[in-house]
Specification:
6 helices; Helix Hairpins; about 130 residues; flat; about 80% helix
């Protein structure tokens, strides 16, 4: 009985993979995949910029906030959370200088997170215009 139930669950899992077949027939998904492939260099540049910003802001806040961040990894975690503007609140600066760095980091985080959306949107609009012509 148990083997039959496992086999049934296996077939259910394969049925869920059918959803991915629909991506083949969706024109919008095909265009987005093509845009991401075509703008790979620009997206990699944005990822490099984000990674560099995370490391630099982590270094700054780690030196300014000696008591709040026990390890450098805690500072990198804080920088990543601040960059993405999630702000879990489990690690945070307590000094005025640290809070100013956090505010600046959040503002730049919004800009860095918005860059890939703009790149993909511009490429999508260009691909739509190319398809119309």
């Amino acid at each position: 009985m148990n083997e039959g139930f496992r086999l049934f669950r296996l077939f259910r899992i394969f049925r869920t993979f059918r959803v991915f077949k629909a991506f083949r027939y969706s024109k919008s998904i095909v265009i987005i995949v093509r845009v991401i492939r075509n703008s790979r260099e620009a997206l990699m540049a944005v990822c490099t910029l984000a990674l560099g910003y995370i490391i630099v802001s982590a270094l700054i806040v780690f030196n300014v906030e000696g008591d709040s961040f026990e390890t450098f990894f805690d500072a990198i975690y804080w920088a990543t959370v601040s960059l993405t503007t999630v702000g879990y609140g489990d690690i945070y600066p307590v000094t005025t200088a640290g809070r100013i760095i956090t505010m600046i980091s959040s503002i730049f985080g919004i800009a860095i997170v918005a860059l890939p959306a703009g790149i993909i949107t511009a490429g999508y609009m260009e691909a739509l215009q190319d398809d119309r012509e």
